[in-house]
Amino acid sequence: MENKVPELFGSMVFHEGVMKERLPKSTYKTMCKVMQEGKRLDKEVADIVANAMKDWAVEKGATHFTHWFQPMTGITAEKHDSFIAPAGNGQIIMEFSGKELIQGEPDASSFPNGGLRCTFEARGYTAWDPTSFAFIKDNTLCIPTAFYSYGGQALDKKTPLLRSMEAFNKQAMRIIKLFGDTETSRVNTTVGSEQEYFLIDKDVYLKRWDLVYCGRTLFGAKPPKGQELDDHYFGAIKPRVKAFMSDLNEELWKLGILSKTEHNEVAPAQHELAPVFTTVNIACDHNQVTMELMKKVADKHGLVCLLHEKPFDGVNGSGKHNNWSISTDKGANLLEPGDSPSENTRFLLFLVALIKAVDEYQDMLRLSVASAGNDHRLGANEAPPAIVSMFVGEDLQAVLDSIESGAEYAGKDREMMKVGVHVLPRFFKDTTDRNRTSPFAFTGNKFEFRMLGSAVSIACPNFILNTIVAEELSKFADQLEVAEDFTTAANKLIRKTVIDHKRIIFNGNNYSDEWVVEAEKRGLLNLKTTVDVLPYYLSEKNITAFTKHGVLTEEEIHSRYEILMEGYVKVVHIEALTMLDLAKKSILPAVSAYVKDLAETITLKRQVSTAINCTSEEGLAVELSDLSAAFVDKIKSLEAALATAKEMDDEKAEAEYYKDTVLLAMTELRGIADKMEEEVGEKYWPFPTYGALLFSV
Ligand code: ADP
Ligand code: MG
């Protein structure tokens, strides 16, 4: 297989190489311009491109095409149309026009829209994003598109991401120009997202309705062995998992997705895949395809891939590490100190813009990763806390300290650190300590945002990151563009920003209780749940930033707020109903059956002899009967809570009620079930145990 990788790689992608080969020279040139500069495509060019795309796709076995988009559900959507058109005489031809390539019109009425589209105006449009290549999946030519309403409002995750790239480019270019750089013509943010997931056996999975309905277990006593021995992390990969990974890699490579590393994670049955980084919108498409293929390929191997943030209590959940950096079209990484004083000033300017952004928009970063599933992880000693802070590491901290104090820099070479005069030592890459507890860590030439849940699209965290940094860059540029002496002004600005925003930097252990206290003293936000953070979306500060840079309109922000709040309620509601269902139809009957058998055993034993010892059966029967009575009480409490929630019509109040009351009732119900599970004979228990799930492969 190995030898075939180079020819396999990207073989199902209509990438630049294919365009060059298959398009007339002038069309190819136009396409390059369109891709690099975001220019519009006119109809004639589109017709030529569409035809070449269709010929290529048909040769590869494709029969259909689809506008592939990323609605607010967080997963991708597609509606397939075939290339077939009647040609008379009962014959057909394969056809695909420029119009079909550029725009589609899927019925949008069933996608979440947060009140943006009244039902009478159900039309939604998809528009080709030519910066992301078309590809073939399941014999279908997939055209990456943005999805928007009749009125032009974004109905998807991709549109704000694309808009944020433009905003970022615009503001970053203003800064770049101040350095007299005339070569660079485009600045993009780059992302590599490491994806965690669980793999379990499909037969076992299908016996767990909580996993089937909710993606996470809602009941389950702790198995004798979990992750305490740390013997799974980076351990040898089992043959069945290895076969899955090889197959997955091959599928990903065909689509030009550079899946690079794979290893076992901390929890049993947990694994991770890391791709090579790329431009942010492509990274986003790639991550969506990766998640989809993980599920598909797992199925082929009789496995199920769980992408939920917390499939199992008591062992680590899954996240996604969003490695984020800034890159120019000339290949420079702007988060890497350069070889000249001027490059270092540039590095420091971008760095402090980021520090300021993270400090001023802690709420938006927390919001960007908010979901009912991720609430189970953040702050649970397995993932960063809900408090946003930044790790810069000892060496970079020393640089920032010397900038602040104006004192001698006590770094490795003990040189005087003067911004714009001295060269920064190039030590960061090797010595930045891997602080695994930080939500936002500098790792040499990029930042790793670690709060993301495993299931969510990376579009939201990245459009938010792009926008808030663009906002700080724009403020910097406003000041620096009118400064008399650029270097002096830049130095002053860097120093002031460090002083004003250093509270956001924390290099210690983010999992410790002391940090929670310290963070509060520093005035940092600690927004523990999705419901706590969502209202921040509507704050004036945030609306101003997102509208100013044309990333979201006020209307779109409101709609997103509503979709997220409603989504939270729906998720918890489904979980609660699933619990009630399992509690009443599976768990109670199982416990009763066991108690009945115990009682019969006692009766039979007594018939043999009154002297026979029945205390174990009696003890168990009494304990389980008491527990199931308490269990029924908790069922009633949960039912009552749901009934109360149903009466509420204020969405925010309802979400708060779910968070405070319904979730608590669910936890209490589970507590008793898990206790009963520990006492009930294995063959009576109605579904596979945690042990059977976690060690099923
Ligand atoms: P390791 O953590 O083993 O040192 P890396 O730091 O090289 O590995 O990469 C971790 C992830 O960060 C990978 O997905 C990688 O592609 C990504 N990454 C590396 N450099 C950048 C960059 N400049 N921009 C965005 N992501 C990057
Ligand atoms: Mg990582």
Automatic annotation (TrEMBL):
EC number: 6.3.1.2
Pfam annotation, one family: Gln-synt_C-ter
Gene Ontology terms, MF aspect: glutamine synthetase activity
Alphabetical list of InterPro entries matching this protein: Gln-synt_C, Gln_synt_N, Gln_synth/guanido_kin_cat_dom, Gln_synth_cat_dom, Gln_synth_gly_rich_site, GS_Type-3, GSIII_N
Alphabetic keyword roster: Ligase
GS catalytic domain segment(s): 157-587
GO terms of biological process kind: glutamine biosynthetic process
Ranges for domain GS beta-grasp: 63-152
Keyword Ligase: yes
Gene3D superfamilies: 1.20.120.1560, Glutamine synthetase/guanido kinase, catalytic domain
Family that this chain belongs to: Belongs to the glutamine synthetase family.
Entry protein name: Glutamine synthetase
